[in-house]
Design a protein that fits this description.
Length: 66
């Protein structure tokens, strides 16, 4: 949770500085958000692919030899 708050605080600080010096953000907001979504999805592709292709452990039998 701390990392999220730090990230939000850094973004707010950069936004305030941009506003004070009269600079617009480098990308239109919608494009920037779509790019961030792509980054987040891309980060998850390899772990998901690894999980999907990993061999599953054998299923233990519930029957007992008597």
């Amino acid at each position: 949770m701390k990392a999220y708050l730090l990230s939000l605080g850094a973004g707010l600080l950069v936004g305030i500085v941009y506003s004070l010096i009269g600079v617009r953000s480098p990308a239109p907001p919608v494009i920037a958000l779509i790019g961030l979504a792509g980054i987040l999805l891309g980060e998850q592709l390899l772990p998901i692919a690894h999980w999907l292709t990993a061999p599953s452990p054998p299923i233990a039998s519930t029957e007992h030899d008597a």
